[in-house]
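Appendix B: complex inputs.
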Amino acid sequence: MKSKKILEIKNLHVEVEGKEILKGLNLTLERGKINALMGPNGSGKSTLVNAIMGHPKYIVTKGQILFEGEDIINLSPDKRAKKGIFLSFQYPREISGVGVSKFLKTISKKLNPEFSLTDFKKNLKENSEILGISKEMNERYLNAGFSGGEKKKNEILQMLIMNPQLMMLDETDSGLDVDSLKTVAKGVNAAMGKDKCVFIITHYKRILEYVKPDKVLIMINGKIVLSGSGKLADELEKKGYEWIEED
Amino acid sequence: MADRIQQAYTMRNPENLKFKSPEGLTEELVRRISKDKNEPEWMLQRRLKSLEIFNSKPIPAWGPSLKDLNLDKIHYYLRPNAKNSKSWKEVPKDIYGTFEKLGIPEAERKALGGVGAQYESETIYHNLKKDLEKKGVVFTDCDTGLKEYEELFKRYFMTTCVSPNLHKFAALHAAVWSGGTFIYVPKNVKVEIPLQAYFRMNAQKGGQFEHTLIIADEGSEIHYIEGCSAPQYQESSLHAGCVEIHVLKNARVRYSSIENWSKNTYNLNTKRAVVEENGIIEWVNGNLGSHTTMLYPCSVLKGKNAKSDYIGIAYAGRGQYQDTGCKVYHLEKNTSSTVLSKGVSVDGGVTSYRGLVQINSGAVNSKSSVRCDGLMLDNKSKAMTLPAMDVHESQVEVSHEAVVGKIGEEDLFYLMSRGLSEMEATKLIVSGFIEPVVKELPLEYAVELNKLIELEIENSIC
Ligand SMILES: Nc1ncnc2c1ncn2[C@@H]1O[C@H](COP(=O)(O)OP(=O)(O)OP(=O)(O)O)[C@@H](O)[C@H]1O
Ligand SMILES: [Mg+2]
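Resulting structure:
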């Protein structure tokens, strides 16, 4: 039996370029749950997910990141990906000259070696359809010249192909039009399962109407200061963050 | 496949030569080469004149240093113990084995209209498909070409295209050239499948000076591919080949070459095309191996509407210096040129794009666009771009773009977060970087080039 806790973070301190951004953060995420993380600009949300994914610039100076009970701090990002951690980037990179479908085939082989080429093709077709991504789109170079929304959809396509356990979405909803937002939400819901966990960073409650959170967490100044039900998002939309005390 | 390729580049055969000239270059040797080949007197005279030019010209003082190239230590003429055959069966086993590993006979069966193979100084195999022969296409080695088409050689061999006066190594080539390829495509004949030649150096401290002469007569078309390699030895070897292409009115020539000399070869090569009215020259230039390469394929756009397209790729690992680029002279109206060049350097290697676009006054409505990019895989390596523009006409369109940078940490992280190791991510980024060039290559070569570069990256990033 897999334990209920998928991720547990204890007293995490993270530095970027010599500056401490996360200052003793604690967090537990459970399987089968959708979690939203909200907080003002610059509070450290992206820093947190980058540190979980293993970005070399985000240096853990203290604390633990336990994934399925194992401390992953010394693992390279690819090893973390293989354990089932995924990050949909706030700013996906443009990798010129690398075709999308070829790339997806490569990562599918890495993450799901048991899939045959036929399985992969079927997967790609189905998931592209869910996200309304055309065949032509998948023949282009990875994110090169993609619009903001196209990039975000491609992130979700990668996620569906990789089939991760922990899905961290860093402002995947930013820049999406109403229809794209629904499409992306459909993709996320399709990827969700009772063993899995969604961790979604957003500034707006809009996406949370389609991807319904079990829990909303608020980060201010490098710490999680408040957590509550989905209703918390409505409250934030009305009142902003100022009413929340830091400690 | 990767294994086969790696082996092909590292394997060396024991020396089995009919004649090996002693180290160094003398008049006596030049006479001997000419005599061995039974050449007409005028060719001997040209060789001797070129030797004088060679002796009188200084080593180039710009670009990569050539101070460790000891010209007195090179064996300038190496005759293998094999004759020029039309059948692979007649080629000695060890030599055949080398070409087999390089995939040449297989490629010939699958995708080529004709193949030539040179080992050391001599051509050991040459064959052209019958239907091409019937159309009057000539594809042979230059020694045979000189005998059978003497008038064409008098007119076109190192005269109006590459003159021995061009630089020291052009003169050296003219003095000691041996083997290579001669192609003549008659008027309006379109050769639809590529012809290929492969040049292999095997001996230590050897020199290879093969000559390629292509004459594409009016309205004709041809795609010619050259590959080159040599195994690794302690001491340097020298390659100073020469390629001359005459693109006559309305003709089109595509010349592709992937050079993968051993890491201690000095590759001082000269390639030039003269393009007449409405003619098109396309250069595809890949440089992976060698210690030092100085190579600047040049297009002289002599007739109205003549066009030159160049795509190049250079890879430099530890101890390597790839100094390459395209030169274009726009002499007439409505001439156009494009350049796309990609350089990858790693582990202290240096790539530099050194190009020139010259537009003469009167060449109105000429166009040129140059793009040269460099990618460094670490902090030890260097990538430079030195494109020069020399424009003497105002009614022209020229553009130039260059992007040089180190492989991005954010890009690596992005790909690694998708489960690729650092090495795999690096390889993917490099393959994407060179993709615009690779996609122009015939499939087999594209696959092989990608594999070669992957091997190089694996060997340098551990
Ligand atoms: N690579 C970096 N180099 C320098 N500073 C950084 C870097 N990454 C983050 N920071 C700094 O760390 C702080 C937290 O940034 P982070 O991106 O984590 O915020 P965020 O909560 O995701 O904000 P937003 O809502 O605007 O996306 C900011 O002050 C930011 O400038
Ligand atoms: Mg952020």
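Chain B touches chain A through 24 residues (CB under 8 Å).
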